[in-house]
Amino acid sequence: MHKIVMEELIGKKVRIKKSSMPELEGTEGTVTGETLKTLKIRTNGKEITVPKKDCTFEFERKGRWVEVKGKDIMFRPEERIKKHWRKMHARMRR
């Protein structure tokens, strides 16, 4: 799992690599909101709501694209960040 899951996703560029809804694949835009189960993405002047569970996303980070499975970010934003920080610090203490 990539460190991007510990970061704020709002404002990041995103594209949908895989989805159970084929019409969403290839959609690219900017994350404008996040809930437990969805991402809101602004694309082509409109905002769409995409279920995290059914997608594999690519987020732009430091000039390259990082793949993240939706199930790995299926948390409320504040819980997702806190959970992964705890895991990282637990590994560092060993």
Give a structural overview:
Strands 4-3-2-1-5-6 form a six-stranded antiparallel sheet, with no helix packed on it. It has one domain: Roll (SH3 type barrels). 17% of the residues are buried. It has 94 residues and is α+β, with helices and mostly antiparallel strands. The longest helix has 17 residues. The model has no long low-confidence stretch (mean pLDDT 88). It is globular, with a radius of gyration of 13 Å. The chain has one helix and six strands; from the N terminus they run E-E-E-E-E-E-H.
In short:
This protein is α+β, with helices and mostly antiparallel strands and 94 residues long. It has 1 helix and 6 strands; from the N terminus they run E-E-E-E-E-E-H.
Number of strands: 6
Low-confidence stretches: none
Termini separation? 19 Å
Radius of gyration: 13 Å
> What proportion of the residues form beta strands (DSSP E)?
35-45%
Number of helices: 1
CATH superfamily: Ribonuclease P/MRP, subunit p29
Assembly state of the chains shown? single chain
Portion in helices: 10-25%
Q: Biggest β-sheet, characterized?
A: 6 strands, antiparallel
Order of helices and strands: EEEEEEH
Task: Please indicate the count of domains.
Answer: 1
Q: Class, according to the CATH hierarchy? A: Mainly Beta
CATH level 3 topology? SH3 type barrels
Structural class: alpha+beta
Q: So, CATH architecture?
A: Roll
- Widest sheet, order of strands: 4-3-2-1-5-6
Mean pLDDT: 88
Shape: globular
